[in-house]
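REVIEWER CHECKLIST
Item 1: Sequence provided? yes
Item 2: Single chain? yes
Item 3: Sequence as submitted:
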Amino acid sequence: MTFEISLSPQVKELLARGVRITNPCTVEIGEEVPLEAISSQGVEVHGPVRIVGSLTAIGPKVKLGQEGPVTIVNCQIGAAVELGGGYFVSSVFHPFSRLGNGAHVREACLLEEAASGAHCVGLKQTILFPFVTLGSLINFCDCLMAGGTDRKNHSEVGSSFIHFNFTPHQDKATCSLFGDVPHGVMLNKPPIFLGGQGGAVGPLRLGYGTITRAGTILRKDNPTEGLLLGNTSAGREVTPFYPGLYLDLPRRIRNNVVYIANILALYTWYLHVRKLFVRDYWDKAVFEGSLKALENVLKERRHRLEELAGKMSRCIQMAERVLQGKKKEAVIAQATEFEGKWPLMQRVLDQGLAEELGARHRDNFIKVLNGAAKADYISTIKALPPETSRLGTSWLQEVVDGIEERAMDYLPSCR
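Item 4: Structure as written out by the authors:
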């Protein structure tokens, strides 16, 4: 008995255009994929690979499947990206980013230039600034990480690290900031090092230059720069737990608001700065995909905060039942205020306000940037004089602070 191997028209066309496919009979390309969106310049496809989705774009010198099977669904992949193996859906990979085998990358992830991860990395709505590096066996969903200046001086997440993003109260208002946007985009801050076999309980905020010992579980905000952190007490070994009773509501709400404000700042940075570096088809695909990813992150974060507001009736009931004195009064006041004022807060947490805030600093920064000799994005930003970087940071910090202040003004009991 003989078998005749038949290649799809899509695979045949890519081969004819010069795409290197080591085993063409194991490659599936959906009919909806625009083949002109797959570069023929130095692209390598190894082993079993499935590429689907009308929004998929694959830039020059991309390597897929060097380490294992790959599935790509509606991803925008910039030049010289390497995806060793795994599942990648509706996410964006800027040039020179890389992930090893066994990756599981779900919707709205954004890996900027030279961000990378080793094998078995799980991401969802994760934003990694340039050069951020993840080890192996990591779950790092619903967070943003910045810090570092280049490939040798980069923020690092050690192997077997987990960002805990689901609470026993059954909510996911748990997004965390490792660094921030206003300083992180300037690529001049000290790196963050999260030791392996550790974790972070979201939502929390961590400052630049922070180092955590291996095995550390972060449970509190530490925005001060340059700290060496170890494990802190998780409380008494045995303590009552009341589902739906939020005893840390002010911190939880504020951290979510600050996270959303940072994403809005990053969105406006893309609109005004990143767009200046769009030079070809794949730059455009990555740029537009990044905006879409950020929009999806914002939608998800607002939704999760709205869900939290919807749990306040239960919180009030539990507080009335199990708390006493001033603590009872405080929790009831906070929950009542949040439940009633959420619609007003929601209006603040939109893109329109981000465009209004910091306009003077923004216009001055863009004017200087337009006058600078522009190479690629990374080289241009790193070459900015310190006073120009500070100007850009001031613009974005005004966006973050303005949104945070306006949203939290509706909750005086949470100050």
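Item 5: Key structural point noted by reviewer: The chain has two domains: 26-229, 249-414.
Item 6: Recommendation: ____
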